Amino acid sequence: MLFNGLYVLWDEPLIVSCFGASDRARFLDLKHQGVVLCFPAWFQDYSSLPSMIRDLWKARYRGKSLHFICNSLEEDRVRRRFGLPGALISQNAYISERVFHPTGVGKEFDAVYTAQMESFKRLNLAASVDSLFVVTYGGTKTPDGEYDLHRFEPLLVNAQFNRRWIGRDQINEIYNRSRVGLALSAVEGAMLAAVEYMLAGLPMVSTKCHGGRELFFDERFVTIVDPTPAAVAAGVADLIRREIDPALVREATMARVMQHRQKLCEYVRGIIIRTGTANVPSETTLYERMFGGPDGTRDCFVPSRDFAARGW
């Protein structure tokens, strides 16, 4: 998902979605009324409730409607316990299967880990993987502005990584040159990369986690390991040995992605029906609007710099 803007899911009534509390605040400050479905950028627990309830009341005071969309079962239990509007629908429904897909190129790396240079990613846990590529970004850089993964995590001195920002097509190429994807954080959001790996046909080694990536786990191609370098390396070796069919991984993952997309379409259609409008789109129409464009949901995205031009 993209930051600093809103995804326009429907125009009349205006229904948008956003990612994280900052973009939620941007919507609440708009003069245009409407409905926002907000996905969390980070795992939400009871400590998140004060800001959620505050924003809910702010939205109602300003004539807007705020819905909290949850990435994990834990988040949704908290939401339901306190009667907050929303649903359990993973943000990973927004990932483009057109971008992330198997290409059939030869394998070069035992594992790939898409991880910014932040402590919560626990990059040290990948230290015992023999052949590793890290797709990274962050503030640790060399004097000439290149990413400096080896300075951030000296244990990965033998890992290869991108020196500068790379796009989605390049990331998919690296996934396809890798045999296994890694997901090593204990807590974060839904981790887009976890599903990107699997849409590209990669099995995955993960530690136990909070945040939502677990909704897409399948024991046929996802191995849960203890948070130690040795356990991660052993999990990678086991998945490589099993020679899992990339088509199986992609098809099973895509089926789960479709379940969440269908839930999103049903949820948005329900909001439209409750407005009393006579022009209620079918779920097929909504699906085509949200996901049918050449670049999927990105075709629905409006950056914040364009809000004024839309009269928002």
- Can you tell me the CATH class of the largest domain? Alpha Beta
Number of helices: 9
* Major β-sheet annotation: 6 strands, mixed
Distance between the termini: 21 Å
Report the average pLDDT across residues: 96
Helix and strand element order: EEHEHEHEEEHEHEHEEHHHE
- Sheet-strand content, in percent, reads 15-25%
Mass-distribution shape: globular
**Strands side by side in the biggest sheet:** 5-4-3-2-1-12
Summed up, the domain count is 2
The whole-angstrom Rg is 20 Å
Low-pLDDT regions:
none
CATH fold type of the largest domain: Rossmann fold
**What is the total tally of β strands?**
12
Secondary-structure-derived class:
alpha/beta
CATH superfamily of the largest domain: Glycogen Phosphorylase B
CATH architecture classification of the largest domain: 3-Layer(aba) Sandwich
Task: Give the helix level as a range of percent.
Answer: 25-40%
Compose a concise summary of this entry.
The protein has 312 residues and is an alpha/beta fold. It contains nine helices and twelve strands.
Characterize the structure shown:
It is a single chain. With 312 residues, the protein is α/β, with parallel strands linked by helices. The chain contains nine helices and twelve strands. The protein folds into two domains: 114 residues, Transcription Regulator spoIIAA (2-Layer Sandwich), CATH 3.30.750; 144 residues, Glycogen Phosphorylase B (Rossmann fold, 3-Layer(aba) Sandwich), CATH 3.40.50. The strands form two sheets. The protein has a six-stranded mixed sheet, with helices on both faces. It has a six-stranded parallel sheet with strand order 8-7-6-9-10-11, sandwiched between helices. The chain is globular and about 60 Å long.
